[in-house]
């Protein structure tokens, strides 16, 4: 069941991560393009202002021509009542700066990227530094929120930055060097930036709301998606349990019959010995499969009581000391006294037996085997370590899988089926703990089981 839950969580996690990535790309691309478009339009407006020394064409004044007066006296005339052909001829055409290019009144409502309303909708100010003057010329006629002192500070900051374009607060600026003068134009982009921020916040909230909705839907429908796996898994466990009980009976009968035949023959028979050995292995494998199936049933077989953990582990581990020493292997035990633990005592005994049996089997002659426990206020850790043949660290992630063996040839000699550590994992997980296998130097295996302490 834990495997099914992990599958469900992984399905939801991958789906949400994929959705988050797609939304992030879409939202990021959209907002970046939106921001770049706003900056580009601001720069185009600044370029137009720089082209005419800090004013829109309609506001250009020279010594020959005053701009046509609008009916409201603002100095800008949006209609076509004053055109270039209404002006008096100029004697010096070369010095006339007010030509057809400086007049936006001949445009339609929108010409390219500029609108006839652009001078009305733009808020800007300019600061011009002349080489012949110590004080800059400041024009703040087209903005109300900036005074001359502030304009001067902004211009100084723009020049100190060394950039020709940039932002200071919500003002986009551009710098232009002319012969003998430097002009800095600032365009108020507060409204544009506020619109951009609102759009960014809106898209972020919509994306977040969409992710929450998809998460709830995935949480609801993922159960239906994994339901066939759950059913198959339950059927598999029931089959293993039922088949195990059915197989036990003929195995027991075969084993008993061979013992009777051996008694009747009155002498050792190698064929009968082989039958007994194989039936013992088959019985052990069947018991392990049934035990694993039961342990994976959400710990329903466990009886959680407080017991002396130190005594149980030391007593169980003591029975492995003699086999290890007779095989020329060093055995050490480090279990602090007086440790109590709430769990299933029988299952913990089996866990210790599995870990040490695995260590003794696969530790080469002259190698080292150790079992130690460590108790903290947050966790109880049981660690089994043994010298081993060269181990691939990547293969250790599969060591707890059913029937997986690091070295199949070696396991065939020791009689292992690759199911003991699967049972160990089931025992640990039934106690809400975690188990992992690591190697320090590629020539040893360390299995660590950690249990939460309540």
Structural features:
454 residues, alpha+beta, five-stranded antiparallel beta sheet
Rg computed from alpha carbons, rounded to a whole number of angstroms: 42 Å
Note the total helix count.
Answer: 10
Order of helices and strands: HEEHEEHEEEHHEHHEEHEEHHEE
Cα-to-Cα separation, first versus last residue: 24 Å
Low-confidence sequence ranges: 59-112, 408-412
Q: Please outline the major beta sheet.
A: 5 strands, antiparallel
Counting DSSP E segments of at least 2 residues, the number of strands comes to: 14
The residue fraction in helices comes out at: 40-55%
* Overall average residue pLDDT: 79
Please indicate the percent range of residues in DSSP E strands (runs of 2 or more): 15-25%
Computed structural class: alpha+beta
| Spatial strand order of the main sheet | 4-3-7-6-5
Tell me, what's the shape? Answer: elongated
Please, could you describe this protein's structure?
- By secondary structure, the protein is α+β, with helices and mostly antiparallel strands.
- It has ten helices and 14 strands.
- Helix content is 49%, strand content 17%.
- The longest helix has 76 residues, at 190-265.
- The protein starts with a helix and ends with a strand.
- Strand 3 and strand 4 form a beta hairpin.
- The chain has a five-stranded antiparallel beta sheet with strand order 4-3-7-6-5, with helices on both faces. A five-stranded mixed beta sheet has the order 9-11-12-14-13.
- Mean pLDDT is 79; it is low at 59-112 and 408-412.
